[in-house]
Specification:
With 202 residues, the chain is an alpha+beta fold. The protein has two domains: 2-63, no CATH class; 67-201, Mago nashi protein (2-Layer Sandwich), CATH 3.30.1560. The chain is 48% helix and 21% strand. The chain has eight helices and seven strands; from the N terminus they run αααααββββααββαβ. The chain has helices spanning 2-24, 27-34, 37-47, 56-63, 67-78, 125-136, 140-146, 181-196; strands at residues 79-85, 94-100, 104-111, 117-122, 160-165, 170-175, 200-201. Strands 6-5-1-2-3-4-7 form a seven-stranded antiparallel sheet, with helices on both faces. It comes from Portibacter lacus.
Length: 202
């Protein structure tokens, strides 16, 4: 009986020590294990029940992406151009416009715009070619490395988000007061499209 009590006491002491150490000094080590590659792979496999072992690595890397990155990639996959105009403290127009690779255009007006709701239209061939030429005029890798850098947005300035795709590279960005002229050209083009196209509400 004494041996059993001694055994129980030792285990109790050991468990207590582990708990104390975990709370005081080994939290970092535990965190490192949980953030490790192997742990991440297993976690993804558990969360993605239909994932095969062949998909574990790509699924793991997918799980590390931010929500903004996933959103940008989802848009860019089938999209040529996307622009979102945000709100400001005044009467700034709030809307989203997307040009898909097949020429379909989707517009969603939110507030301070003539068209409120979700609409669709179709680009003519020359309009599609114009959109593509505006994108082709941009050196996406070079621009991505230089812009945006250290942008400080004022609360009274409407944030404009844009995603460009040349079919291979996807370039998500935020337009500020100091954007390259190439991005301004695309913004002007999209704003003009909203006025020129015949829209059908969906």
């Amino acid at each position: 009986m004494g041996i059993l009590n001694s055994f129980i006491s030792k285990w109790t002491l050991l468990i207590g020590s582990v708990l104390i150490l975990t709370s005081c000094g080994t939290t970092k080590a535990v965190k490192q294990v949980m953030e490790s590659y192997d742990f991440g792979i297993k976690k993804v496999h558990v969360e993605n029940v239909n994932s095969s072992y062949d998909r574990l690595v790509p699924d793991y890397y997918e799980s590390l992406k931010s929500s903004d990155q996933k959103f940008a990639e989802k848009i860019a996959k089938d999209t040529m151009l996307y622009m979102q105009k945000g709100a400001c403290l005044g009467k700034c127009p709030v809307f989203r416009i997307t040009i898909f690779n097949n020429g379909i255009v989707k517009y969603e007006g939110v507030k301070n715009v003539d068209l409120v709701g979700i609409y669709e239209s179709k680009l003519k061939k020359e309009q599609q070619e114009k959109a593509r030429s505006l994108i082709d005029a941009i050196d996406l890798p070079r621009m991505y490395s230089k812009y945006p850098r250290g942008i400080t947005m004022s609360k009274d300035v409407a944030i404009t988000k844009m995603v460009l795709s040349d079919g291979v590279l996807k370039f998500p960005t935020v337009i500020s007061y100091d954007q390259p002229q190439e991005l301004t050209n695309i913004e002007v083009y999209l704003n003009q499209l909203i006025k020129d196209l015949s829209w059908v509400q969906i």
